[in-house]
Amino acid sequence: MTWYAALGALEQGFVYGIMVMGVYLTFRILDFPDLTVDGSLPLGAAISAVAISGGMDPYLSLLPALAGGFLAGTVTAVLNTRFRILHLLASILTMIALYSVNIRIMSGPNVALLGVATVFDPVIALGVPPHYASLLVFGLFALLVLALLIWFLGTELGQAMLATGDNPRMATSLGIDTHFLIVLGVGISNGLVALSGALVAQNQGAADVGMGIGTIVAGLASVIIGETLFGRMSIARAFTAALLGSVVYRLAIALALGMEIGGFSFEPSDLNLITALLVVSALIAPALKQRLLAR
């Protein structure tokens, strides 16, 4: 793996790490399987790209993208909590609807961002080389989101959200409005996913309606890898593990794509196969470790 490939993997690990932390919030904290993220990631990219194309500051464009993702998440959560639609089905319905919504927002399947300002321009103007600017911006955004999530879950509202995910019946008996907290949590999760999509679009120079395909798979793979390698003994450690799991996942993919064994090498089309192998390895590693220690 070359230095530039490793650098690119780190960039992707940090920017998609924001998405992974959002997935962790629903998947582990709220115990709410949510497939909306496959639609909310391109939603954030579409909103940010259209806003920038219309002359909005690239940093300010992240706010409507975040709000759009939050709204998409609340739709899924309301369908589940108020209308009793199964969470998986509710998220699939929202995800399908977002495909058309994203095309409507972009007035087509994609929007190019060539020759317009991005969040990296102010950093480059300070003298940071372009190939390091994105790594710096993504790293700072990821650390900021990590700090805010740890702080939020330490508040009274955050503790109530933890109780809702851990034991909703007990939380209800304590007077906690579990429906509100599920709506809030799923909204925050998809807001973070949309924020990640907005940053990815500015880095790639385009927003595309299909860029969210496989987002949930990559998110869950990163979560599982992070938990296996770094554990989740506390909230701070769990979310840090999710972020680091995203970095490890992207580095592992870059390493696999750059390997060649006996004339065999992986192609970009093998990405899903590599992801499956990584997840299986992460799932069976603890059991194998226990057996080895037992022997």
From TrEMBL:
GO molecular function annotation: transmembrane transporter activity
Domain of life of the native organism: Bacteria
Record flagged with keyword Cytoplasm: no
Subcellular location, record wording: Cell inner membrane
Alphabetically ordered keywords of this record: Cell membrane, Membrane, Transmembrane, Transmembrane helix
Residue intervals passing through the bilayer: 6-27, 62-79, 86-105, 132-153, 174-200, 206-226, 238-259, 271-288
Stated family: Belongs to the binding-protein-dependent transport system permease family. AraH/RbsC subfamily.
Name listed for the protein in its UniProt record: ABC transporter permease
Organism: Sedimenticola thiotaurini
